[in-house]
Hints:
Layout: H1 8-23, H2 39-43, E1 51-52, H3 55-62, E2 66-74, E3 79-80, E4 83-84, E5 86-91, E6 106-109, H4 115-129, E7 137-140, H5 144-152, E8 158-162, H6 163-172, H7 174-177, E9 180-185, E10 189-190, E11 194-197, H8 202-218, H9 222-228, E12 230-234, H10 242-253
Parallel strand pairs: 6-7, 6-8
Antiparallel strand pairs: 1-11, 2-11, 2-12, 3-4, 4-10, 5-8, 5-9
Amino acid sequence: MYDWPEIRDPTDALWRAVRDAAARRGLDLPGELDRARLPFDLWTDPALVLGQTCGLPFVTRLRGKVRLLATPCYSATGCEGPRYSSMIVVARNSGYRQLADLRGARAAYNGPHSQSGYAALRATLAPLADGQPFFAKTIETGSHRASLRALAEDLADICAVDALCWALATRHDTAITCRLRVIGQTAMTPGLPLICAISRNDSEVAAIREALAEAIAEGLDPATRTALMLDGLEILPEHDYDAISAMGDAADALDYKILH
């Protein structure tokens, strides 16, 4: 989910470390990551051995179809252990100072199935919206990077961006982020979960978890860990992700059922 071109080599290094650690436990993982197929097709592949999904589709579309393996811990601002938030971003030269100022603005979001770019923002604004449209216009951009670019190019006024994506953008998209600033932060929820096919048995799940933990703790050099901002791994109970459903339910109860 964070497979940016600028960190493709570190991501591949992580995969090799996981693959090698899995091989020591008798698991035969693919030699390379599959970057060709659509995410949902990969997530629901009955042969899936390891993938990363967003928390929102995990609770709304994938429960009962996949197994939860673990949740990565990242070092970016806005991340705490296995939990993360979204940064609410506006143009640096705009007059927006607080969330209430955003009423009537143009909002960009990556997609309606995104926890960080859509659902978390909807939940944050629901108490202010009073059941009414909050924005003058909303724009679906297809990615967090595209949402940030829309702000920089004055195609939108505000977006919510996954805290790790914002941190990556401040490293790799400085020509964009120098024209933006953070105005707020959403509530934290469990981060993007690592999953495997529902058909994987308990022994396989245990072996994959061990391989992941070993790869992160011992298989990466400091430069790779820094590039990925990867601190570790936690195994959360699946019900921790109910916080995402509860966030959506709270916005629904305030009659703010879509981001608008």
